[in-house]
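Lab meeting minutes (informal)
Scribe: AK
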Amino acid sequence: MRETIAAIATGMGSGIGIIRISGEEAFSVIDKIFVPKKSKKKMSEVKSHTIHYGNIVFNNEIVDEVLVMVMAAPNTYTKEDTIEINCHGGSFVMKKVLEAVLKSGARPAEPGEFTKRAFLNGRIDLSQAEAVIDIINSKNKYALKNSINLLNGKLSEQIGNLRAEIIHNVAFIEAALDDPEHISLDNFGDKLENYVDKWVKTAEKLLITVDNGKLFTQGINTVILGKPNAGKSSILNILSGRERAIVTDIEGTTRDIIEEQINLNGITLNLIDTAGIRNTEDIVENIGVNKAKATAEDADLIMYVVDSSRKLDENDYEILKLIKNNKAVVLLNKSDLEPVITVDKMKELTNNRVFLVSAKENTGLEELTDYIVDMFTEGKIDFNDEVYISNERDKAALDNALESLRLVKRSINEGMPEDFYTIDLLNAYEELGKIIGESVEDDLVNEIFSKFCMGK
């Protein structure tokens, strides 16, 4: 933590590149290599949070013409002295500027080390730190909004309030047990039970958000099933907006899994096109059919594409078995041709919503997209002050805290001594602390930040 670190903080090939330096020697490092054009002051002497124009000079050669931003501790991202060099964005020039920085006293930053220092220096807690990488990885507006809420401390505030109330009650019990003559625990169990009920409701409310949280961050795994030539690949191409899959009149063209990610009214769909399901003697095609069936078992949503101009056969009835216990929609495709299967017939067979579509004429899919969004969100997405849990680590900690709180309630109802309450209350306090990083092992912290990209 006492070493000064540096890294490229922007992607290669952008118009502007940023080299970030943080640590006690940040100003000393920049003073060795930066020559301002309009001032003779060193960067260690200028006003904080100012920008200065000049050249990076190393080994008596100008490396690049740059802008240098100077930010003094503690009002920086890491709460340390920080320098950001804005240079040209070519990969070669950025590497040369970074090389000059490293040879002037800094060392290469580890992945996520800037954010790790922000956490260790107390500027942000662990849930906020993890929100940084969630923002970077956001694939839709809901994931981005939720990550921003987390970064702004919405979850931290709720967890902090819970822990404060829990530890207050633990302290009261301990004080009363140490000084029973002056502090009474008469009827305290009833008062504590009211608190516990409130804490349980808060934890349960957060846990209810887990499914939507995963939906926003990971997307809906959507498998497209159907017989050969039903129009599955055409549907994939239309939804993705590009020729992602080969489309021909030859049955069995698609033999392997084809994946595409699309943004559907703010929600991410992980579309998976599969081999047409039929009985076949072709060894390769049969492998694809078996893979399609296995993929369908783990799907969040199945799109069953039916050729409305062809009668149902044994292959269709095989697919009907696959979708029986899954969330599914039926796309009655080729509605531009003379139909032999009706919407009512498919509703009767599948008990699912049926959409009359034409991949050829690109009709009927707009209503489908609206329905899928409503199916998974139930029209109840509200981001005023809501936060959604998408992190498995947070979910596990909440589950454990909830179990401990329920044990406290059981102890109260069974008339156990008050010192029994404190054991489970402290367990709940500890588990909640894992969410914001108040009680986590160093190895876990290192693992979390190792997933960050360099320069963040």
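Next up, CB showed the second protein from the same session:
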Amino acid sequence: MKQALSLGRRGLGRVWPNPSVGCVIVQGRRVVGRARTADGGRPHAETQALAMAGAAGRGATAYVTLEPCSHHGKTPPCAEALIAAGVGRVVVAAGDPDPRVAGAGLDRLRAAGIEVTEGVLRDAAERDLAGYLLNRRAGRPFVTLKLASSFDGRIATATGESRWITGPLARRTVHAMRARHDAVLVGAGTMRADDPALTVRGLGPMPQPVRVVASRRLDLPDGRLAATMDQALVWLCHGGDATRDRRTIWEERGARLFECGVEHRQIDPADMLAQLGAAGLTSVFCEGGGALAASLLSAGLVDEVLGFTAGVMLGAEGTPGLGAMGLEALAEAPRFDLVESRAIGPDLMHRWRVQRHSQD
């Protein structure tokens, strides 16, 4: 199962709206088939691994990180493929909460006389598949908030200079994290201030994440985003007050537009994420700015925080990493548990997961 999990992780950010599943087929002590969900979401891991195994799959044990699908979609059910191949046993890490599956895949296997073992390395599988599982359970993608700041929590000097607070190794790590998510999200202020391309660079050819910008009025610059429309999808989340002219300009460039509700003169983050989830996204890597990050945190919609802290001080006049959150008491502040921390060149990377009771 550890091999299957490792395979599945290789597909993160590359297979939405499907989950990145790993499958390993073992005959005796020999691995006869192995695969992960293909880029774009098809073919599924099980059918590829079975094709590799061929006749050696009969009577074998299949280790799968997620319950095999049991519904007919654009491809036949994986549960039926396992039955047709004559496997003798299926070991599953995590169940699939999709109402079209939700235990039906395992029931179909058992009805065919196949031995089924559930829950092997379930916690690890659910961590890897957190985005897909959250999408199916809550209808929204898993949100990772990235904050790169000075030691005193600033993201720019008083004049707006921000390139670069952290070093090249930290920035390369950020590109790797972008690649593991379905989409990269920023606010309009970040687009105007930094003119980012939001693509994955320096890691070789690979599928690019969707570039999502939250801009209530669609008052975006004609910068690198507009100049690179052919390199990656662009989705724009806007309010009802975005003019028809601005909508038309971006639609003609090839962007997909989402009209979202507005709260306190900002895009409603819950509505935005619900629409992105309905469009198939399972994980979003938010890179700011401060107002967008604060709105996501205030709404309880951040699942993980990834911080990069540099050993430099910018002072109170520098730009803070977060916008106003209106907190009056510590008890109101969102809290996270430290998952890992390590040096990335001269900088410190620290990763935090939302405290479980915060979601209750």
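CB comment: The chain has a mean pLDDT of 94.
No objections, moving on.
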